[in-house]
Amino acid sequence: MTDDQRHWAIKRIRAKRAFWVHLTVYILVNAFLVFVWAVTSGGSFWPVWPMFGWGIGLAAHAAGVFLAPMDVSDERIDRELRSRGGSVTSAHSGLG
């Protein structure tokens, strides 16, 4: 395993972990909002609005983590290096 592959794998693990933390916080906060709604008024179900808005962001986060292309090609690595102002001097092997 090359250093580039290891770095990429660590980045993917962190992205997945961040998503699961985001989902957990979403569930806990919205459960609390439902609790507040239930013990205060029980009228119109207002927690649906923060659930909906935040849910859009959560879905976007999930798409970015789980639906984004998972392959790492030499071309993508070189493009990323160039975008950060780095120089591309050699091909990266074994990352197709």
In DSSP terms, counting alpha (H) and pi (I) runs of 4 or more, how many helices?
3
The fraction of residues in strands falls at under 5%
Flag low-confidence runs. Answer: 91-96
Please trace the helix and strand order, writing H or E for each element: HHH
Give a structural overview.
The protein has helices at residues 3-40, 48-67, 74-83. With 96 residues, it is mainly alpha-helical. The protein has one domain (3-83). The longest helix has 38 residues, at 3-40.
Task: Jot down its keywords.
mainly alpha; 96 residues; single chain; 0% strand
Summarize the structure.
With 96 residues, the chain is an all-alpha fold.
Break the fold down into its secondary structure elements and pairings.
Elements: H1 3-40, H2 48-67, H3 74-83
Helix pairs in contact: 1-2
